[in-house]
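seq:
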Amino acid sequence: MKAVALHSAAASLLLTTLATAPAGGTARDVSGAAEPRGTTVAALRAGATGIHYGACDPADVPPVPHSPAGLRCGTVSVPLDYARPDGERIRLTVSRTPATGRDGERAVPRQGALVYDPGGPGASGMYFALAGTLPVWQHVAAAYDLVGHAPRSGPGLRFFTSLNNARDLEVLRAALGEDRLTFMGASYGTYYGSLYAAMFPSHVRRMVLDAAVDPDPAKVWYRGNLDQPAAFERRWADVRDWIARHDDVYGLGDTPKKVQAVTTRRPRGSPGGRRAGRSGPASCRTCS
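struct:
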């Protein structure tokens, strides 16, 4: 079910750290005056029209056994350019499964809609509406409508910005009929989720940011991606050590070196892989 493997760690994080954000403050769009006005126009329009739901396209939300009751999909219209809200518009696809209202035998009051973004940038979170089929998410699905969406894509590349993604989230909030947003973002989703909270602080209800992107201008994006492999390697060293210390369970070797040898051994008869190349600024002429 793809990244509906928002496994127990993420679900536990959601359950234990969804904290109410301060309600004070007003919208603080950091761009020119036209974009904030355009966002207000688009949000009011979306709030008035809502979302017209229908059956989900299997290409957007793959069919699964025991699909959740009430699973629906629709679209939300947003301006391509928020400085011109009455100009060209594009449609964002949305999936939604209503809160079940029950956690086992216990009745659970509805908390609102929980919007999820898996990051990317540009990755679709449409499958999130299926998360309630996983046991670890059922207690969350009892209280929250599970909402996924596919971010803007297509022509007009210069309008595909993090600021516009945050504005799209504001329009989605209004279309869902929520006074304040409950949001969970992973990876890049943490970045524009943070932007949303800075731009629309009074519209944040609860927010979880998992696997945060470093927003430091010296780190984001390419250089941040260079840091990731080093972090992965440190964690892989920890895993090798763990496996070696529990060789009675895993049987892959009683030292990290032996574990490394087993896990990197090429299966007999498999085709050869490409030799690893260099990574870093010197290997990319256009990344500065």
